[in-house]
Amino acid sequence: MKLLTSSCKLLAAAGFASAVGFAADFAEYGAGADDPAYWDEVYRVQGHHGRRSYEWYGLGYDELRETLQRLLLQPLRETFWGEAAEVLVVGSGDSDLSSELAAEVGESGPEPRPRWLVTSLDFSAEVTERMRRRHPELKFLTMDARNLSSIEDGSFSAVVDKGLSDCLGDQAERRKYFQGLQQTLRVGGRMLVISQRKLEVASDTSPGDQKAASEDLLGFEEDDSWGYDVGADGWACVQERLLGPLFIEDDPTRPPFPQLGTEGTIPYYVLACSRVAETEMTAMRWQR
């Protein structure tokens, strides 16, 4: 039995110890865990053994509902009131997050709400085809979130990443990735990232070398949350902490599962950022 403390412990490029365990069991297929062919085989094998849906970190929609409402959905309703808008879910896998999110933002209430359209993408064709069959009302694209050049700038009002950023091994790759996400967003759009890595806003999300940028940010820290008035190059961010279980894996035919008795012991982080215009970011810095 092997402990799994991160979804991307499987990736040699992820900056964790090594590509072991579950990844080694699929090594015979000739693809590393940063290759879609590897995940195609994982989904095929585990699907044959009954896998239908899976939530990395054990954080499904019920566990994230309050966080999503407070840090994503309500701010979006206030910013884009009465407008149709789209939400992009990256690295969507076979999570129910996309369908639950689509149902949540589509709920009717005492006041009119904008229509939210959820688009999900994953680089595994096996899983995107499976999800299209399961949810024909939603849009699932086979695409690598590390390269979103085919998506028009400003196409989305929100982007959600649960676990994908943990697959990115160094700051240079994370900077490029978050810059790509930023470009997909409208000004005022929101990005929500859920990860095991406590992201450093200035150094992880800026497209350039921001080693000293954190000294230029006004920040605060509490037991479970901290934030900045201005993030890096077009982001205004806050970050919070969640606690969840430790995951283990002992069988390549099924995904990792939570270890009993470890609930609430493993930290997970939520980074929520808004894309701000350059003029707004300059004004915010002056207000400091």
TrEMBL record:
Residues 87-189 form the Methyltransferase domain. One of its GO terms (biological process) is methylation. InterPro entries: Lys/N-term_MeTrsfase_sf, Methyltransf_25, SAM-dependent_MTases_sf. Keywords: Methyltransferase, Signal, Transferase. Residues 1-19 form the signal peptide. It holds the Pfam family Methyltransf_25. Belongs to the methyltransferase superfamily. GO terms for molecular function: methyltransferase activity. It comes from Polarella glacialis (Dinoflagellate). This is Methyltransferase domain-containing protein.
